[in-house]
Amino acid sequence: MSDPLRHSTIPTNGVRLHVVESGPEGGPPVILLHGFPEPWACWRRQIGPLADAGFRVLAPDQRGYGLSDKPGPVSAYALDALADDVLGLVESTGRPRAALVGHDWGGIVAWWVATRNPERVERLAILNAPHPAASKRYLLTSPRQLLKSWYVFAFQLPRLPEALLRRDDFRPLAESLRNTSRPGTFADADLDEYRRAWSQPGAITAMIHWYRALLRYGPSAGRSARVVVPALILWGARDRFLERGIAEASLALCDRGRLEFFDEATHWIQHEEPDRVNRRLIEFLGSEVDPA
């Protein structure tokens, strides 16, 4: 990576987010949104290539994670609040729009911003994350997906999930990452960095609050679920958490979308297939034509 990482704190929507930036300040902005349980560093293999391709890359610790603020109430992690955080990051770039790239929970947030505020989104790239509307419908018709989503319901319990995840220096979280990814995907150094993020005061409770808020509040009603901006979905087909069909159901909600399966990748696609993911992202984000 030719451009160094720049750490800053950006105020948005009543919170302050720790953001890592790279790339030319005048370049087209690309915001990378991480998922559970990873901090901004889950994009360490993408930030450099995107910056070297001329993009201004912003990779935040989303609210509740790492060095960012961690509001106390569950309601502070409602999907609309998470989306408003991203709109503030877009505004901080000085541009009317930015491209969004999201994985896991970050992908759900990115879907929702593009659905709710398409005028602020240049392009949308999703890695193994279902559209919120597609997820809700799919769960009602797929017992297999409902079974795979057991942890979402377990996280609704008070205090117990936090106690379990903190055990033995966050061993359950580290084992979950390694047990659901290809061998060698997460090195000891990677998990040490993650543990530092998980150790921040209030972080584990805030991270679980994302799931609690999802069932208690959900996305705001009365909006079309259609995604009108150009969208690219990259999907690891060996995902242990999400069915392949939920990716296809998400694509069906896109006016101008393309779905590409990575047959040998798991849920942790950007770690396992960084070169291929980076090529697809750079091609898509820099292209002049829509992907349909």
Could you explain the architecture of this structure?
It is built from 12 helices and 8 strands. It has 292 residues and is α/β, with parallel strands linked by helices. The protein has a single domain (6-286), classed as Rossmann fold (3-Layer(aba) Sandwich). Strands 1-2-4-3-5-6-7-8 form an 8-stranded mixed β-sheet, sandwiched between helices. Strand 7 (231-236), helix 10 (244-251) and strand 8 form a beta-alpha-beta unit. Helix 1 packs across helix 12 and helix 4 packs across helix 10. The longest helix is centred in the middle third of the chain and has 20 residues, at 160-179. The radius of gyration is 17 Å and the shape is globular. The model has no long low-confidence stretch (mean pLDDT 95).
Largest sheet: 8 strands, mixed
CATH architecture: 3-Layer(aba) Sandwich
Total individual domains: 1
Q: Pick out the low-confidence regions.
A: none
The gross shape turns out to be globular
Query: Per DSSP, what share of the residues sits in E-state strands of 2 or more residues?
Result: 15-25%
**What's the mean pLDDT score?**
95
H/E series, N to C?
Answer: EEEHEHEHEHHHHHHEHEHH
Rg (CA only): 17 Å
* Number of H- or I-type helical stretches: 12
Distance between the termini: 32 Å
Strand order of the largest sheet: 1-2-4-3-5-6-7-8
User: Which structural class is indicated by helix and strand composition?
Assistant: alpha/beta
